[in-house]
Automatic annotation (TrEMBL):
<dbReference type="InterPro" id="IPR001320">
    <property type="entry name" value="Iontro_rcpt_C"/>
</dbReference>
<keyword id="KW-0812">Transmembrane</keyword>
<keyword id="KW-1133">Transmembrane helix</keyword>
<keyword id="KW-0675">Receptor</keyword>
<dbReference type="GO" id="GO:0005886">
    <property type="term" value="C:plasma membrane"/>
</dbReference>
<comment type="similarity">
    <text>Belongs to the glutamate-gated ion channel (TC 1.A.10.1) family.</text>
</comment>
<dbReference type="GO" id="GO:0015276">
    <property type="term" value="F:ligand-gated monoatomic ion channel activity"/>
</dbReference>
<dbReference type="GO" id="GO:0050906">
    <property type="term" value="P:detection of stimulus involved in sensory perception"/>
</dbReference>
<keyword id="KW-1003">Cell membrane</keyword>
<dbReference type="InterPro" id="IPR052192">
    <property type="entry name" value="Insect_Ionotropic_Sensory_Rcpt"/>
</dbReference>
<protein>
    <submittedName>
        <fullName>Glutamate receptor ionotropic, delta-1</fullName>
    </submittedName>
</protein>
<feature type="transmembrane region" description="Helical">
    <location>
        <begin position="394"/>
        <end position="417"/>
    </location>
</feature>
<keyword id="KW-0325">Glycoprotein</keyword>
<feature type="transmembrane region" description="Helical">
    <location>
        <begin position="200"/>
        <end position="221"/>
    </location>
</feature>
<dbReference type="Pfam" id="PF00060">
    <property type="entry name" value="Lig_chan"/>
</dbReference>
<keyword id="KW-0472">Membrane</keyword>
<feature type="transmembrane region" description="Helical">
    <location>
        <begin position="165"/>
        <end position="180"/>
    </location>
</feature>
Amino acid sequence: MFQLAEELKNENLVITTLKNDRLSGVENKNETMFGTGVAFDILNILQAKFQFNYTVIVPKVNVWGSEKSGILDMLRNGQANLSVAFLPVLTEYSNDISYSPSLDTGEWVVLMKRPKESATGSGLLAPFTLPVWLLILLSLVVVGPVIYLIIYIQAKLCKDDHNNIFPLPACIWFVYGALLKQGTTLNPMTDSSRILFSTWWIFITILTAFYTANLTAFLTLSKFTLPINQPEDIGAKKSKWVTTRGNALEDSIKTNDSTLSPVGRMLGYPYGYLDRPDRDILRQYVDKQNMMFIREKPVVEYVMYDDYKEKTRNQIEEAKRCTYVITKFSVVSFSRAFAYSKNFKYKQVFDSTIQNLVESGIIKYKLREELPDTAICPLNLGNKERQLRNSDLLMTYEIVGGGFIIASVIFIIELIIRRSKNPNIKITKSLIKELKLKKPQKHTFHVNINNNYEKLGQLPFTSKFVTPPPSYNTLFNPPSNNDHIKKKNINGREYWVYDSSGGEKKMVPLRTPSALLFQFTN
């Protein structure tokens, strides 16, 4: 190896590269090509150690191997000794070229516009997943008949207990009313029915507590869920996406017979392979057309960071600076390396030094040298307070509107049924007045004794309330005229005030206000 290192001195190597943002590229100065990017930083380290010279040439087409006249053809035909770029290691090219040790594992991620609303669903449905909602709906349908069935069987088996059998509609309404935190007029008498009722109440209490807590967190936290959670969602939802021309993604999507590879079937055909700068793609396709941009992770991080800095310099308010987001998952991953021509003489010398650079962490450091340590515009922007928007309450409006519409439809159906039974009745103002509820008589209304149904199918016993009982002094002899006994109004209440035998003043209420709450039936 020492002899090869000596031979490498003053050797002039022909090098080609890809234009790949900060990873690799070229600049033309005075009709001379100079390499740029992290890949050429690595090459300059090799040049400083082995003291060779190099000449940079660019391929006719800025692609790796998906088209002719790309880097692969230049290495295969001997037009270049090596390619200095972060090239994916694809086994189908191994017969024509050779690779250096792996520089890193390249991840292709998705950059997209940050969604304004979470993709989890509407605000009122977001706290629970679909299976949870289906199970809650199932419990609402099943529990009512189960309660009725158990009470019915218990009453038939234990006839001496004088058990009340609640009607099935009453049991169903109890289940629904408990969900809405309503009370109930049912008064179970047996232990089994009481346990059933209390179990459902405990279940509803825990369920509503979880729902309230999760709904509060969903509406107040600035956390969004993306419309895609895995690479397969891109193809399944037929999302439009773009990428740059000539990168590894293009090579991995198509096979040699122009059919889709497994990666291609997962992602679907792209909207286009674009030979344009990344910033232009960001503005033209991601911003304006809301497409997804699939690219190497370091590249999209630099693009998003530059966009954030530009908006900061333009004094755009902080809430509008993070307009893009990167997926946490990778679409594809490839080991990346330099590529040599098949018979490159100094491969062993280069490989040894490149391996040392990888193991020391220098390459990993160079890839993120200008990026901040913190995450750039993460998916969760933190617990920032925000006001609720109409979109958060959209389902609330839909429920109210739907309720009114359903009630109106049922009302019209009732009128049609009534008219069909009595064809001579016309729908006029007199009919509408007839449909109105009649006002109850003064001081009377119907009640259900003990709030229980005595028998299955029997209507509850009704009674009329009478006026409250008279005051105390009308039932007993009023006190005689005495200077020591006087009638006084204290805090809105009337009292007899008198002196006791011990000399203390005592008060006797004429009538307590709570007496108005008590009524007696005939």
